[in-house]
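Entry type: protein chain
Record version: 2
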Amino acid sequence: MAITKPPVLDETGKAIAASLAGIEKALKRGSYTLYAFHIDGSESNPASKVTYLEDAKGMTPAGMDYTNGVFSYGSWADAFFMPRPCMVLQEGVVDYYLDPDDYTKKEDGTASDIADTSYAGNAMMEWGQNGKKIWYKVVPDPGDVTSGTVYICDEQLDPSYHAWSFINNQGREVDHFYTPIYNGSSVNDGTNDVMRSMSGLAVSQSLTGTVERDRCLANNKGSEVLWYTEVMADRILINFLLILMGKSTDTQTVFGRGLDSGSQTALNAYRTGALNDKGLFFGYNDGNHGVKVFGMENWWGAQWRRTAGYILKNGDQRVKLTYGQQDGSTVDGYNTTGDGYISMGISPTGTSGGYIDVMNFNDYGMFGKNSSGSSSTHYCDGQWFNNSGDRYALFGGYSSNGVHCGAFYCRLDSTVSDADWHYGVALSYRPRE
């Protein structure tokens, strides 16, 4: 009997076959989307360090095309986790959405209020679209906590998946959480100094962490805490999504260096909104401009951003990922001592101010362990630490840190009372329902 060879498919046929295969896969397992990546702790090359798994297999990573000055989404433009820019009233209601390619306009093309400090609200990114939360699970490699797999899904497949960012400060699971489009700028509303996320402003400087927190809280119009500073739960989740999209642990190379040079002169000259017309992602391969990821300016560079929920207490890294005790912590609210927080059992080693070469993975995330790397290997970002006393976390770096900056760049050697021009803060918001 003659054996008939299968027909050779043209590009259209291949696309149809791939689509049918994807539909068949979805029908077999359900309608959820499950992305995953593995990080090999022993691999020093930032790109080779990350392997795509599950639905991420075969996807094209995102990244800046510096030659042509455009951002390429690769396969990620329509990912379920992509946030939306919007204006949120201080009373706790989304007022309207912004044009993602030009924040000076509303979604309908009319003028927005992003630069009007008399507007009683803030420019924020809304996370959680079409009823889909962002659930993640972290699984360290057996016998090797320096390597691990991160799963990101639009459903909670089992109890080991967490969506800490979607638990509000009243302890309820909500459909959205909100992160700042801009660094915090202190504005007097006629009665109080209030930390705002608005365009066209100089960033706040030289405030203690307590004052920064109080000015963020001043956005709240009642006794409920809806507005707060940035929190560790959001930092962990967003950094995981950056690794997923960029398929690399070198965020500066993939997304842009950020404003990492020029010292205080550069920061003083900077005004929020410099990247209003650059879409949700944009960066440069020099250190003289800001960087924009997920619609937010300066996730790294420009100014250290103080972050609640992460304390280095006498060398013990401790986290709190919900305002209440839903994460397993034993205290309500965020404090400056780490008491009641969850111990990671991880003490930083290596050189304070060196580059992170080892992260430890656990159920809560990944945390810097050792700093003996370089600007082009492993995680490519720096880490400062002081293993005595209570050290309040800052992230991202500032306009004198050069290539130490990046999504993982962390300062764990500062107290909450420290104040300097390169220390700042930004808002977060969680709705009532």
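Comment: Residues 11-29 form the longest helix (19 residues).
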